[in-house]
Write a structure and sequence with these properties.
Elements: E1 2-7, H1 19-33, E2 37-42, H2 48-55, H3 58-65, H4 70-99, E3 103-107, H5 114-122, E4 125-129, H6 134-141, H7 148-161, E5 164-167, H8 170-180, E6 187-189, H9 205-211, E7 219-224, H10 233-244, E8 250-255, H11 261-269, E9 277-281, H12 285-293, E10 297-299, H13 310-317, E11 321-325, H14 328-331, E12 341-343, H15 347-359, H16 361-378, H17 381-393
Parallel strand pairs: 1-2, 1-3, 3-4, 4-5, 5-6, 7-8, 7-10, 8-9, 10-11, 11-12
């Protein structure tokens, strides 16, 4: 099959080390590994130098933004995005005319109609991957816009006019069904996955721990990711401190950086367990393996209700026990006390989880091995890509 992979997002770059960049690369690679030809049409660029060019005016934009009311600023951004979408449509049509693909596979985005419009105009099958409730996410992350009604219309258009839909969680599937009336059979749920070549299961965990300066008897609790308020790293520090009062062998290993890092470090400094808390900072993606391998317990304190976090699969691939929020996307892949540990939003619940797991090596091994086995069978990018292709071909 000849596939055009289309991303209309103006800044989402194929080469970016971010989660979305990784997702695009891995799905494309999975299509190719299955013997299909893929032509990427990535409006945000395919190299990081292109992305840098897209963002080079950020300084003066920031100054102007500080002078403009939020609603007006977001509305201007949305107006520009809709104009860009028409430009993206023309670029896509040119590629379609040249390549004559069997399928346009689109990574959908807020307000974007170009992929479906081009597919209908050319008479080609279209599938769309929707990774968020985009109108809701836009308001939460950036603020309201005068074009929010158009965003809601675009979401319905994406769901109802595409031939097939792919989402990363059952919660997102239910959201689309309620919001747009789309049929359940049209939507495939495929949680995120891990590249097993980048996170080899034979990584020497003891060597990694030793290189990080941890002793054999230490129990290492870890977090890898961006430090933002909604990721709950503050909860992790408070829960760790509570558990460490009874468990002096506990260590906390935090990898990443972000907008609240200063506040998080200040919080840790006030804790009695501060000498057992280590901040590594941001590391290259290739180095993440060694840091995860050094951990016994991998924690994701909080997550939104719709996203499938890649980090839990990276934790699991290196046989860390996964501890995460008891929400829909986590329940799609984790069964409490069978292959991981689910927690409420309360600090005490996370502290209790750390205490139980730190005291029970057999349980840690059982949970870690069970999730590892599940990942190998279901949550590799190849498995994800095969599921997507099967769904698209049967649409």
């Amino acid at each position: 099959m000849h596939i055009v992979y289309f991303s209309p997002h103006p800044h989402l770059n194929l080469a970016a080390p971010s989660g979305p960049g990784t997702h695009m690369r891995e799905v494309i690679r999975g299509f190719e590994d299955a013997g299909h030809t893929v032509v990427p049409v990535i409006m945000g660029g395919t190299s990081l130098s292109q992305d840098a060019g897209n963002r080079q005016m950020g300084g003066w934009k920031a100054r102007i933004r500080s002078l403009i009311p939020g609603l007006l600023w977001q509305s201007l951004k949305d107006r520009r995005l809709m104009a860009f979408d028409q430009h993206a449509k023309q670029q896509l049509l040119e590629v379609v005319a040249r390549e004559k693909p069997d399928l346009i596979y689109e990574r959908g985005y807020y307000l974007m109609r170009s992929g479906i419009e081009a597919a209908k105009q050319a008479g080609i099958k279209h599938a769309i991957e929707l990774n968020a409730p985009y109108p809701e996410e836009k308001v939460y992350m950036e603020g309201k816009s005068m074009f929010l009604h158009k965003a809601n219309d675009a979401e319905r258009f994406q769901a109802l006019k595409s031939d097939a839909i792919v989402v990363v969680s059952s919660a997102l599937k239910e959201y689309l069904m309620k919001r747009t009336g789309v049929e359940a059979s049209k939507i495939l749920v495929t949680p995120n996955a891990v590249n097993t070549a980048l996170f080899p299961s034979d990584t020497d965990k003891w060597k990694a721990r030793k290189n990080m300066g941890y002793a054999e008897h230490d129990i290492v609790v870890g977090f890898v990711g961006s430090i933002f308020p909604y990721h709950g790293v503050d909860h992790l520090i408070q829960a760790f401190d509570e558990a460490a009062k009874q468990l002096p062998m506990l260590r906390l290993h935090i990898v990443g950086d972000g907008e609240t890092m200063t506040e998080i470090k200040a919080l840790a400094e006030r804790m009695p367990s501060k000498s057992s808390i280590r901040f590594v900072g941001k590391v290259n993606h290739a180095e993440v393996v060694d840091h995860v391998a050094a951990m016994d317990i991998g924690v994701m304190p909080k997550s939104n209700w719709y996203g499938s976090p890649v980090k839990i699969f990276e934790y699991g691939m290196l046989r860390c026990v996964v501890v995460g929020p008891n929400n829909g996307p986590m329940r799609d892949v984790i069964r409490h006390r069978e292959n991981g540990w689910l927690i409420s939003n309360q600090v005490q619940d996370l502290s209790n989880a750390l205490t139980v797991l730190a005291n029970d090596a057999n349980m840690r091994n059982h949970l870690a091995n069970a999730f590892y086995d599940q990942i190998i069978q279901q949550h590799t990018w190849r498995a994800v890509s095969e599921s997507i292709l099967s769904h698209c071909m049967n649409a």
